Amino acid sequence: MSSTDPTSPTQPTHADNSPDAAAPSGREDGGDDSREIADALAAVCDTMRQSCRKFMVAENVPRVIAVSKRQPVARVRAALEAGHRLFGENLVQEAEERWTPLKADCGDVELHLIGGLQTNKAARAVALFDCIQTLDRPKLARALRREMDKQNKALPLYIQVNTGAEPQKSGCLPADLPELLALSGALKLTVVGLMVIPPADEDPALHFALLKKLAERHGLTRLSMGMSGDYDVAAAMGATDVRVGTAIFGRRTS
């Protein structure tokens, strides 16, 4: 990240009680799973409260998007039995296979796409998901507009911002954000916020601060930032949504 990116000497760093250290085991033993996952969800929320107190900011408990990528269906069902209804998936095909039957059984689930989206899968994504967090280019914006018109749907969208300018990662560059927002407005797309995945080898707080500044500059209220390794930092920096998998479900299966 460039030295011109906004920073603060009081930006949080990871809490001492790393969420991965207490991650669930991922076992599949029936009814006990729902209690284990309910406890893990409660622990995630408590960790975010503690982080806010530690850094002396207003208490902020963002929405927890339970990332179910590559998790056994039994674990996902256990989360549903525990009362959780907000989930995130990275891949359209995997999500279709898992969530088509699950959504039929549980109609109040809210499912977010949090992985990169190819334009040739826009129709399937619009059909399945309740929110797409990875709008990142004009071609995709136009494809989503066409598919929403065809399916008579109006999904909320987040723009994914590549704050680290990583060539291998999806997301629009910060400098390109105004143009993409202008196009989205012209297409009458509902952009509600921004999403970021910081570089793995950099302090996530720097990227969270930049995302927050960009959102404020453009009048956007939702910030999807923070995953299992840094959601505590994200909460203290104003996240409205955190995307947490391992700290809820345990290690992913292959």
TrEMBL record:
Residues 1-33 are annotated as: Disordered. GO terms for molecular function: pyridoxal phosphate binding. Residues 59-251 form the Alanine racemase N-terminal domain. Signal peptide: none annotated. Residues 1-13 have a biased composition (Low complexity). Keywords: Pyridoxal phosphate. The keyword Cytoplasm does not apply. Its cofactor is pyridoxal 5'-phosphate. The modification N6-(pyridoxal phosphate)lysine is found at residue 69. It holds the Pfam family Ala_racemase_N. The keyword Mitochondrion does not apply. Belongs to the pyridoxal phosphate-binding protein YggS/PROSC family. NCBIfam families: YggS family pyridoxal phosphate-dependent enzyme. HAMAP family: PLP_homeostasis (MF_02087). Pyridoxal 5'-phosphate (PLP)-binding protein, which is involved in PLP homeostasis. This is Pyridoxal phosphate homeostasis protein. It comes from Eilatimonas milleporae.
